[in-house]
Amino acid sequence: ACAHQQDTLVVTEAVGPAPLFAAAAPPQGFLRVYTPTVEYDDDQALYDRHRNFSILTPGGETLQYVVNADDRWDQTPARVSLPAGSYKIKSRTLHGRVATVPVVVEEGRTTDVYLDGSFAGPAQANASGGLPSVSAGPGDFVTLPDGEIIGWSVTASSQP
Question: Is 0.85 topped by the overall pTM?
Answer without folding.
Answer: no
